[in-house]
Amino acid sequence: MSSSSYKTRNLEIIIGTYEEFLLGYKVELKDNKEVLVQSFADKSHSGSIRCVAVHKQWIATGGSDDRIFIYDMSNRSQTQILLCHEGSVNALTFTPDGTHLLSVADDGRFIATRLKTWLSEASWKKAHSGLPVTHVSCHPSGKLALSLGSDMVMRTWNLVKGRVAYKTNLKSHNSLGRQPDCLTWSSSGDYFTLSGPRVVEIWSIKTASVLHSYNTKSRPICICWIAAEACVVGLEDGNILWLSLNKDEEGQKFELIAHNARVKAIHSFKDYIVTASSSGEIKLWLIDETQTQSKSKLIELAATNIGCRPTCINILDLEQFGKDYSISSASDESNKQTKPINIVKKSFPKVVVTVEYDTDTKQEIHKKSIKKPSNDDDDSNKSDEFEDDNKKEEKCFEEESNKEMMNYADTDTEDEDGDVDSMYSKNKRSSLHDTLENKKHKLDISKSEKIRKKKSKICRDRKQNILHSKVKKQN
Fold first, then answer.
1. What does the buried/exposed string (b/e) look like for 171-181 if buried means 16 or more CB atoms within 10 Å of the residue's CB?
2. Would the pTM of this model clear 0.85, i.e. be above it?
3. Where does this protein have compositionally biased stretches of type Basic and acidic residues (predicted)?
């Protein structure tokens, strides 16, 4: 097994979709090839998922349902639901030190939430003059953050003091259009990107101005940095644009055909890039900067179609959870020693008897046997009447029981002769054990045993009815 294949098995791709699903995909080896296999699917949001952020074992998702869901992937469970926003959550990012989660939404709020306690420690209700906040990106140092809003102003936040450091009016930058997009910091923190309808701008933090401006054939949709001075851009025509600030490097700018539809999301992790298209296609790429040819620097490793429209994508590092957490290949499983498994067989009842009889006749007899005592009689007459009534009730129940016993015996003989319409058919007599095996089992119980059980049940009911009649007469 190559080292690259082992590294890919320690990755899990996290995807948010328009269809409200949060999907996970892992890399498996089949016939010595990397294959993307779905690892989980969750549908907690009631609206489309717009953003997903990952830090260590934590995953945060924000959607158009105004909610933020927190997942702890160490035990693969959902731990928190944050209801701090009153509008669609547009962007999420964790601070590099893992102490806070930054979120912005259409309600105009910029909120910093403390991890583990999940309480809002800072909230700016009118971060961009009350207009929707569309982007937020945290500096690698964790001391600064950039945000974009519908007011066409880029704000630089001092996270140490919790206030705006300065503002940059982007209305004068006509190339960025009405709404700038793709705000991302470089890994070194020296540069950040902004994009417009047909342009990608790389800004320098030292000069607070545009360092390079690249024109594109189609609209830039997403950007991610793969090195301190190199980034890749996903375009609307499905291509990937490679941009490099290193002047000594050959091929500072080149395009690579990646998807048939627009590249909706892109993310990098170590030596890998994951791209997602609007058609639902997901691809995993390997970055190989040792190649001399420009287009050979990105090598496609695996691809699949998720059957949904992706909106955002991220990568979870499974190596932090240990080797047992990652998916083991079929070759590794064959080398493991198999332990014997003790199978405990459950015992099923061999016979199930179903007894049915009509209770309407008993209720009628019970009504006839009850007589209302007259108010003029004395106590001695009442006691005599109770005894007479009891004798009458006993006779009635005996006659009724004999009739039911005869009917029961008749139905039993009809059943043995093969009468399908009989009350105690073979289907009702089939045992639970034989039913599970799709086999019929003929009941092997004598008639005398059936009649004895029937008599005992009728006697119990008779005693209860007699007691009930006595209590009613006394009242």
1. eebebbbeebb
2. no
3. 380-403, 431-449
